[in-house]
Design a protein that fits this description.
Number of domains: 1
Shape: globular
CATH superfamily: Nucleoside Triphosphate Pyrophosphohydrolase
Largest sheet: 7 strands, mixed
Low-confidence stretches: none
CATH architecture: Alpha-Beta Complex
Structural class: alpha+beta
Strand content: 35-45%
Number of strands: 7
Helix content: 10-25%
């Protein structure tokens, strides 16, 4: 990565419910279309990552989230963009998730992770979830 390449700050939510966590499938027409990811998105100028996450969850799923501590952060270089992805532990404070932007939404257990095709940036995060849950 060269020095003048911009890194895009991205916030994502790791939301657990009854031993399962939420994953969302990207719209087909977007980059990395139909791959699975955590809900979230790019930070806008002047926003904290927590504010980004709250806004993105409202825009994408019509839910209000309570943002907890950082679960993990990773920097990943795609051919078209370099992302600094910060994943927060979060919970749904209000609302039922609706598909306003994503193709699909699932609640999965850590053991189901291999059944889904995730965005490459999520690999280390998913590995950590598996490791924690396998004790």
């Amino acid at each position: 990565m060269n020095n003048n390449e911009k890194v895009t700050q991205v916030a994502a939510a790791l939301i657990w419910q009854d031993g399962k966590f939420m994953i969302c499938q990207r719209p087909a027409e977007k980059s990395r279309g139909l791959l699975w990811e955590f809900v979230g998105g790019k930070a806008e100028k002047g926003e904290t990552l927590e504010q980004t996450l709250i806004r993105e969850c409202r825009e994408e799923l019509d839910i209000t989230v309570a943002v907890g501590d950082v679960f993990m952060d990773v920097i990943h270089q795609y051919p078209d963009i370099t992302v600094h992805l910060t994943v927060f532990n979060a919970s749904i404070a209000e609302g039922e998730p609706k598909l306003l932007e994503h193709n699909d939404l699932k609640w999965i257990t850590p053991s189901e992770i291999p059944c889904y095709n995730f965005c490459p940036a999520d690999k280390n995060i998913l590995d950590k979830i598996i490791k924690i849950n396998n004790g």
